[in-house]
Amino acid sequence: MEIIPLGDSALLVRVDDSLGAVLATARKLELAKIKGVCDVAPAIASVAVFFATPRDLALSATEIQRALTRRSRPGGKNLKPSLHKVPVCYDPEFALDLTEVTEHCRLAPNELVRRHAAAEYRVRCVGFTPGFPYLSGLPRELATPRRATPRTSVPAGSVAIGGAQTGIYPLPSPGGWNIIGRTPLRLFDVTRAPAALLRAGDRLRFIPIDRDQFEQWPA
Questions:
Q1: What is the pLDDT of residues 46-81, one digit of tens each?
Q2: Does residue 23 register a pLDDT over 50?
Q3: How far apart are CA 86 and CA 106, in angstroms?
Q4: Options 3.40.50.1000, 3.30.1360.40, 3.40.50.300, 3.40.190.10; CATH of 2-69
Q5: 117 pLDDT higher than 70
Q6: Where in the chain is the domain with CATH 2.40.100.10?
Q7: In 26-54, which positions are buried (b, 16+ CB within 10 angstroms) versus exposed (e)?
Q8: What pTM, to 2 d.p., does this model score?
Q9: Which helix (H) or strand (E) holds 28?
């Protein structure tokens, strides 16, 4: 396990790309309650530890080492991953890149939608924009390269495929993933606690809905 600087107020703990190893490392750091730490952010193969000030980082670096080498206490409370059922409308109005994806995958639109919704996904990490989930579990036959030219604005709720992953844009933002549908759910809401609906380790399934259901979905 390697610990390297990340700017002047953060450290990056490199682990392998196992979701279990990443989550275990993040949990140890959260439970350690190290003075000055303001955020612990798991990624695909690392965990970032953010400090309120550079001085806090300098004083607490050894505490991170101790926390990571400390054995987990038996009987400790573990947060169980939640299962989220996310409604998605795959109608052409929302599926801006469905034609390109079906051509790449050599599948009929209905079959592509069926396979995308039939899989169960895991949230590997959350980032890029607030609340954006990087989801593993995409069937191999649906993997599609990102767009050669990213869009300057992707609508909030867009469900998309980027390489071997799928994801959901919580907020309007630039993006280069292939959009195949849209969810009416709010994945990020500052008036909610926590603001992000999904967290690393959570499980997720997509539930197809039609246009009328999309419009009638509770805000």
A1: 999 999 888 888 778 788 888 888 776 544 455 677
A2: yes
A3: 26
A4: 3.30.1360.40
A5: yes
A6: 83-216
A7: bbbbbebebebbeebbbbeebbbbbbeee
A8: 0.86
A9: helix 19-32
